[in-house]
Amino acid sequence: MRPADSSSNVSQEAEIAGRAAARYARGELPRVEKAEVFASDGVRYALPQRVSKGEGKVKLFFRVDNVYKSARLVVECGDKQLLNKKFQVLAPGEMGSVEIERSDITGDISVRLER
User: Fold this and answer.
1) CA angle, 102 as apex, 44 and 104 as ends, to 5°?
2) pLDDT for 70 beyond 90
């Protein structure tokens, strides 16, 4: 990983958070039902912590707690699997991201690894 990769991810996260905070402060965020996002089983954390249900896609960012080779990232909502993606290598120093459809969100979301 190059230092620019890490700072680019941090900048991207900060920009997303800043835009959402500004919209919230201006009262521009619609009141919609939200789901909590939980990380487990090898995933140290996932962002955002809450996701609005509705239309369009949402990008989930995550970091793992160790180096994993040939692992699968699984995103679930209740009994429904929203995503199952294989990664050759996952490392704590690299921010990963995946997209899911907001229309598939029916409850809280779990982000975890299968090894």
Assistant:
1) 95
2) yes
Per the structure block, which two tokens stand in for 61? 């960012």
Rounded CA-CA distance 108/77 in Å is 6
* Tens-digit pLDDT profile for residues 71-86: 999 999 989 999 999 9
Instruction: Please choose, from the candidates 2, 73, 78, the residue with its C-alpha nearest in 3D space to the C-alpha of residue 41.
Output: 73
DSSP codes joined into one string, 10-44: HHHHHHHHHHHHHHHHTT-S----EEEEEE-TTEE
pTM of the model: 0.77
Domains of the chain (ranges; CATH) run 32-114 (2.60.40)
Environment class of 74 (CB within 10 Å of its CB; exposed 0-12, middle 13-18, buried 19+) = middle
Q: How many residues make up the chain in this entry?
A: 115
